């Protein structure tokens, strides 16, 4: 059985200081981890190569939840796996790795790789996922998730900052391939060689930076007003003659007078 010396414990805390890590509470509500596997403790490590299965790491806490984030300008005690985000905020997303094999067994994990999948698309809440894998580990791959939630309730995107990936251990603090947010990349205690020995002093962190971009919600389009019909002005024609009873009588009277006058003229000519 492994017993941790004060030197090894100091190394673990020293690594945390370099990486800017502080023991923080974990919000277990929605985040997940997997696959289901045996767990171990600081006093009772594994007898084979397995990653991130300690439940009582004195710095990280439960290693099964091995991805956390904080604002780049916030204190290390603000690391969480359920973070609220706002527009233009820059985050430091950290993934922890630890070969839990007893140091006395001299078991070295090979082909060790890390992969971080940031959320795609624009949403008011999103999830990131981290994976640690090794060719000779049991299980071969372990994963953990964390959540991001918009403080304003508006949808947002989370964009990786190119060139920001780093590998931090007690032995190196170096840049890491951007492939860590794609297909994954090799990591290790002494560099990106895929080798991690069993023991906390050989554990480490993969860090990346990501930028929050809130998606503006366009204002609602006002309804198109219904056009008001233009009234048409009726065409006024000429006045028709009054053909009422009085007018008709006057017409007949005029006709009779003309007829009488005509008869008188004709009669005189005959006489």
What does this structure look like?
By secondary structure, the chain is of the alpha+beta class. The chain has one domain (6-214). It has helices at residues 6-19, 245-270, and strands at residues 33-34, 67-71, 82-85, 90-97, 108-109, 113-117, 125-133, 141-150, 156-160, 166-169, 173-175, 185-186, 196-197, 204-214. Strands 1, 3, 6, 7, 8 and 12 form a six-stranded mixed sheet that branches. Strand 7 and strand 8 form a beta hairpin. The longest helix has 26 residues, at 245-270. It is elongated.
What brief labels describe this structure?
alpha+beta, 6-stranded antiparallel sheet, 15% helix
> How many domain units?
1
Gap between N and C termini = 168 Å
Number of helices: 2
Rg, alpha carbons: 45 Å
Order of helices and strands: HEEEEEEEEEEEEEEH
Q: Provide the helix percentage.
A: 10-25%
Backbone shape:
elongated
The major β-sheet equals: 6 strands, mixed
The overall strand count is 14
**What is the overall pLDDT average?**
84
Tell me the structural class: alpha+beta
Low-confidence stretches are none
Assess the beta-strand content as a share of residues: 25-35%
What does this entry show, briefly?
This protein is α+β, with helices and mostly antiparallel strands and about 270 residues long.
Topology:
Layout lengths: L5 H14 L13 E2 L32 E5 L10 E4 L4 E8 L10 E2 L3 E5 L7 E9 L7 E10 L5 E5 L5 E4 L3 E3 L9 E2 L9 E2 L6 E11 L30 H26 L1
Parallel strand pairs: 3-8
Antiparallel strand pairs: 1-8, 2-4, 4-14, 5-13, 6-7, 6-12, 7-8, 9-14, 10-11, 10-14
């Amino acid at each position: 059985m492994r017993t941790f010396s004060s030197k090894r414990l100091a190394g673990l805390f020293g690594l945390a200081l370099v990486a800017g890590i502080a023991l923080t509470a974990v919000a277990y509500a929605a985040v997940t981890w997997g696959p289901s596997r045996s767990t171990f403790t600081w006093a009772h490590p594994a007898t084979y190569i397995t990653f991130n299965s300690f439940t009582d790491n004195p710095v990280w806490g439960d290693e099964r939840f091995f991805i956390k984030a904080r604002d780049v300008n916030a204190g290390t005690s603000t690391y969480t796996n359920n973070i609220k985000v706002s527009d233009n905020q820059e985050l430091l997303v950290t993934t922890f790795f630890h070969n839990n094999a007893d140091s006395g067994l001299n078991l070295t994990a090979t082909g060790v790789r890390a992969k971080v999948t940031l959320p795609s698309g624009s949403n008011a809440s999103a999830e990131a996922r981290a994976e640690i894998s090794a060719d000779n580990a049991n299980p071969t791959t372990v994963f953990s998730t964390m959540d991001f939630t918009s403080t304003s309730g508006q949808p947002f995107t989370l964009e990786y900052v190119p060139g920001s990936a780093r590998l931090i251990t007690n032995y190196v603090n170096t840049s890491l391939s951007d492939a860590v947010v794609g297909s994954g990349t090799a990591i290790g205690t002494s560099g990106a060689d895929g080798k991690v020995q069993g023991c906390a002093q050989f554990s480490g962190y993969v860090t990346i930076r990501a930028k929050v971009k809130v998606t503006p919600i366009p204002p609602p389009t006002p309804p198109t007003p219904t056009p008001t019909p233009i009234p048409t002005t009726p065409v006024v024609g000429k006045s028709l003659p009054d053909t009422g009873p009085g007018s008709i009588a006057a017409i007949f009277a005029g006709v009779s007078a003309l007829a009488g006058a005509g008869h008188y003229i004709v009669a005189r000519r005959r006489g």
